[in-house]
Amino acid sequence: MAEVILKNIKKVYPHQEPAKKKKGSEEKKTNLQITDEGVLAVQEFSLNIADKEFIVLVGPSGCGKSTTLRMVAGLEEISGGELYIDGKLMNDVAPKDRDIAMVFQNYALYPHMTVRENMAFPLKLKKYPKEEIRKRVDQAAEVLGITEYLDRKPKALSGGQRQRVAIGRAIVREPKVLLMDEPLSNLDAKLRNQMRAEIIKLRQRIDTTFIYVTHDQTEAMTLGDRIVIMKDGVIQQIGTPQEVFDHPTNLFVAGFIGTPQMNFFDAELVKEDGRYAVVLENARVELSEAKQANLARKQVQPGPITLGVRPEHISLAGDASQAVRGTVDVAEMMGSAVHLHVDACGRDTIVILQTMDLQGAGHPIPATGSALPFTFGGNVAHVFDRETGRNLEV
Fold first, then answer.
1. Is 90 exceeded by the pLDDT of residue 330?
2. Among residues of the chain, what percentage have pLDDT more than 70?
3. Is the pLDDT of residue 1 over 70?
4. Which among 41, 42, 54 is positioned nearest to 4, based on CA atoms?
5. Taking the model in full, what pTM does it have?
6. pLDDT tens digits, residue range 207-225?
7. How far is CA 308 from CA 152, 186, 265, 337, in A?
8. More confident residue, 136 or 19
């Protein structure tokens, strides 16, 4: 298998002649950097991917994640930097000679071929012996649970089955690196959940390095050993799912990772007798010992901040005089919990209310327009610089 190293990888798309604007059309906004060379789609992308590691590139549409994947595959030319696979420089190596396989979003199956023929096709191109081809296809089909479909054509399969075939066609080659570009985005919610589990099982069965692209942070959190979060062609943070959830490096990562997303408030960071606390309306919350140590080590000064608190970390307060005051706007029943949209500090704030406690006792759902005072613990408060959005603890 293979280690993949990307050193200061850059992708620049040259300037194009501006097309005539159609009447009534709107210009597409982009935050990508524009230089004399062209549009910088990916900037200074550096990442060491260990052998057999599962890396997920995640971010909103247009952030450069698929472009990065296509540069690894050789489908996009690298404008700058160096790409190494298994210790070999790959910048100018043809895609067929990189010993990688790619699974696309739209499956890219040959409609006139059976499942067996689709899976065998890349091996036939490399002139493998017939018996070796049959053995590899049968083994891959068994791993993916599609043995009974080998004689069918793609049109006779469901979306999830077609995706399994596309993955099977990739793994029969036993590539050093398996690239997956939003492979589940065309599936419905139930199938996506099933296929996520299938990919986790597949990862346990085959020894290869995975690079997976998605805009779905749930996929990123459940699949990746490490997550690379991108925005406007720039890496925002690299870390394990737990690291980026617990310690987001900036406001973008904090808001992107987590469902529902983190709540943000304008607040004050105060320091009295050497101890830090955050003040939001009537609530004054002293920060945890770990946060005290981090802020003191970085010599963070008191002042205006952006406070981040995840919905699941907000607690309803019995004493409204020492809490943030809110008013219920909308209650969304989610089954085991209710997501309350609360107008607090002039912002739409989400509070999660469990419908049942551990003893099975039900909790009444607050009526629209009712007061909902709440607070939060000092261990779950995230402190961000109001100007730069940087996490002041990280």
1. yes
2. 93
3. no
4. 54
5. 0.89
6. 899 999 999 999 999 999 9
7. 52, 33, 7, 21
8. 136
Instruction: Identify the domain containing residue 360 by its residue range.
Output: 253-385
Domain boundary among 223, 252, 281: 252
Under DSSP, the state recorded for 368 is: T
Query: What string of DSSP letters covers 106-126?
Result: T----TTS-HHHHHHHHHHHT
Three-state SS string over 76-96 comes to: CCCCEEEEEECCEECCCCCHH
Lowest mean pLDDT, pick from 78-92, 197-211, 281-295: 197-211
Residue whose structure tokens are 């493998």: 128
Q: Are residues 348 and 270 in the same domain?
A: yes
Decide if 394 is inside a domain. no
In a domain, 50, yes or no: yes
Average pLDDT over the chain, rounded to an integer? 90
| Residue 172 and residue 242 share a domain | yes
Half-sphere exposure of 327 (CA within 13 A, CB side): 6
Q: Does residue 348 share a domain with residue 220?
A: no
Model confidence at 359: pLDDT above 70: no
Distance, in Å, from the CA atom of 211 to the CA atom of 49, rounded to the nearest integer, reads 9
**Collapsing DSSP states into helix, strand and coil, what is residue 202?**
helix
Kindly state the tokens that stand for 136. Answer: 């590899």
Q: What phi and psi, each to the nearest 5 degrees, are found at residue 81?
A: 95, -175
Q: What is the largest CA-CA distance in the chain?
A: 78
- Long-range Cβ pairs for the range 94-100 (8 Å, 24+): 98/73, 98/74, 98/177, 99/2, 99/175, 99/176, 99/177, 100/72, 100/73, 100/74, 100/175, 100/176, 100/177, 100/178, 100/179
- Report the CATH number that the domain containing residue 102 is assigned in CATH: 3.40.50.300
Is residue 168 within 8 Å of 140, Cβ to Cβ?
A: yes
What value, to the nearest 5°, has the Cα angle with vertex 90 and ends 240 and 34?
70
Buried b (16+ CB within 10 A) or exposed e, 318-332: eeeeebbbbebeebe
Q: What is the pLDDT of residue 364?
A: 79
Residues 100, 177 contacting (CB under 8 angstroms): yes
Q: For residue 311, give the amino acid letter.
A: P
DSSP letters along 264-305, please? EEEEEEEEETTEEEEEETTEEEEPPHHHHHHHHHTTPPPEEE
Tell me how far CA of residue 170 lies from CA of 97, 144, 160, 210, 347, in angstroms: 15, 12, 16, 12, 47
Looking at the structure, tell me whether residues 131 and 268 fall in a common domain. Answer: no
